[in-house]
Amino acid sequence: MLTETTASTTATSNQRSHYQPYHSQATQQQYAQHQQANAIRSQQQVKITNNNISNNVETKQLVKAPNIPDNLDRSSSSSLVNSSAPSAYELHHAVRIGDIQTILILHNRLRHGEQCLIDNNGHTPLYVAIEHGRGNIVDLLLHLGHNPYCITINRESALNTAILYNRYDIVEYLLNRGYPVDHCGFENKIPLELALECNHGHIVILLLKYNCNWRYVEMKKSISLVEWALKHQYPTILGVLIDLYGDDENVFNAIGNTCCT
């Protein structure tokens, strides 16, 4: 009986010792499979994350920064989309490149009396337009209310500035618009005086046709307009003087005496 019990116990023990390793081996295999599955999922998640990061980087690279001129303060570029008053750099740059749409947008944000906004050179937008020969922008700014009589911190006028830069078309436009032909600008110079100093004979002729005060210039500068015309080889000026002042004996005699000497 004892022998049978011992044999039965031994058999059961052998069965347990045989089962336990199998159960342990199965558990290890399941755990290994589980770990392998987790590793695969982790790799897939990392790959997806990397793809998202790559896509985000590529998307950010495709979104270009706004084209802000080098001479503008980039910190102020946001003012193009808000309601704050524009800086002188923004408006002057738009005038310089002839961007009419931007000029209108920026001008609408100007506060009352700011049409003469000064840049770091002491110039208004109207000065910049004349300097770069943009007659259409000059016309636009004047219609928007910009002051043509004071366009620099030195109180230079639009007409004198146009003469200085030899912008014949802008000079003619201003005169046609009714700008005073003898309005003094910087250093109290009238337009004819400046045109003579710059040797712009074609502009001198234009000013004479608009009845500028050439006698005032002769007295102030102690020069003869007839002599100046002959010296700088502008005989057309003599013809204009004869057409306009041929009835004036002094003018006729001055021309005759100068030509005969």
From TrEMBL:
Keyword Repeat annotated: yes
Bias kind Low complexity: ranges: 1-13, 25-38
Alphabetized InterPro entries for the sequence: Ankyrin_rpt, Ankyrin_rpt-contain_sf
Region spans: Disordered: 1-38
Coiled-coil boundaries: none
TM helices/strands, residue ranges: none
Keyword check for Cytoplasm: no
Ranges occupied by ANK repeats: 121-147
Record field: compositional bias (Polar residues): 14-24
Gene3D superfamilies linked to this entry: Ankyrin repeat-containing domain
Keywords assigned: ANK repeat, Repeat
Domain of life according to the entry: Eukaryota
Protein name per Swiss-Prot or TrEMBL: Uncharacterized protein
Record organism: Didymodactylos carnosus
